[in-house]
């Protein structure tokens, strides 16, 4: 009976939490949209009207940012606000995360790699970019250095280390599957995934 309950929980919990998360997001955005409708004097609406309004506003903003004057004006406002250190730290972090999520039209540079440790073991990492900041390259010894992210299990935090490209083993493994493996300490794995190691 214990195994049956555990099996039911393991199958039901992820689905329930995922549905709850998306429903909570829907309710929050719907509430925001209804608040906007109330501001303009529209008090009669159907369920989901606020959500559709928010989606329409986001879509309209996306269209506006395809116009050069709007992009220039937003960039100018952004540069002025970035003068404030606290705003710069918070906004910069959020913007970097958003840009990481939106990779449309950009080359996929998030290569999964293995890095050998002193004890002979290997750790899974990710090459996030092929162009490290110039100040770091100036401070490092001569060589082909790349920043490698080592994700910490059960949290979004990670450690970035600069590693010579010759010391890396490229892995034919998608960024999403390898990230899931790291985040869950190997508990979550795709059965059909095949990992092929190739020397760089």
UniProtKB/TrEMBL annotation:
InterPro entries: COV1-like. The keyword Glycoprotein does not apply. It holds the Pfam family DUF502. It comes from the Bacteria. This is DUF502 domain-containing protein. Keywords: Membrane, Transmembrane, Transmembrane helix. The chain crosses the membrane at residues 12-40, 46-74. It comes from Shewanella oneidensis (strain ATCC 700550 / JCM 31522 / CIP 106686 / LMG 19005 / NCIMB 14063 / MR-1).
């Amino acid at each position: 009976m214990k195994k049956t309950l555990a099996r039911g929980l393991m199958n039901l919990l992820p689905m329930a939490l995922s549905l709850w998360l998306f429903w909570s997001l829907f309710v929050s955005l719907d509430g925001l949209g209804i608040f906007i409708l109330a501001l303009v004097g529209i008090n009669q609406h159907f369920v989901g009207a606020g959500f559709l309004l928010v989606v329409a506003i986001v879509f309209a903003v996306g269209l506006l940012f395809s116009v050069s004057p709007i992009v220039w004006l937003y960039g100018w406002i952004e540069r002025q606000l970035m003068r404030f250190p606290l705003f710069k730290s918070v906004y910069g972090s959020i913007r970097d995360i958003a840009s990481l999520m939106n990779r449309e039209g950009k080359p996929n540079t998030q290569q999964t790699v293995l890095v050998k440790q002193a004890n002979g073991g290997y750790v899974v990492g990710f090459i996030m970019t092929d162009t490290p900041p110039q100040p770091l390259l100036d401070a490092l010894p001569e060589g082909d250095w790349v920043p490698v992210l080592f994700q910490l299990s059960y949290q979004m935090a990670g450690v970035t280390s600069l590693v010579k490209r010759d010391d890396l083993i490229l892995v034919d493994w998608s960024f999403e599957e390898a990230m899931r493996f790291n985040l869950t300490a190997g508990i979550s794995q795709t059965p059909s995934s095949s990992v092929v190691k190739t020397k760089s």
